[in-house]
Amino acid sequence: MADNDQPDQRILVQVCIACGKEYFYEDGQGRPADENCEKCGNGVFRSFYADTNPDDVARDFADTTERDVATNDPATDVTRGDLQDLNNL
Q: Out of 42-51, 59-68, 78-87, which region has the weakest mean confidence (pLDDT)?
C-alpha cells in the first residue's frame, strides 16, 4: 500500500529493445510471445512495472511549483522590515 492509503496502481511497460517504442498494459498480461513490435518488427522487449501513484518526490515537486490559489494569502511574504533592512545595507 502507498502511504496515501490508496492501493498501489502499477502498469506493465514493455519497451522494444531495437527502436524504443513503448507499450502499456494495465492488466499486467503484456504482449503475446508471438507478437512483434509495430514499428520495427523486433520481437525482444524489456519489461518493467511503473507505479502510477505519486511518490514523495512528485508531491514535493507539485508543492513547490504549483500556483497558490488561496485567496486569503498575502501577495508576497516580504515584510516592511525586510525592505528597511535592505535600505540599511
A: 78-87
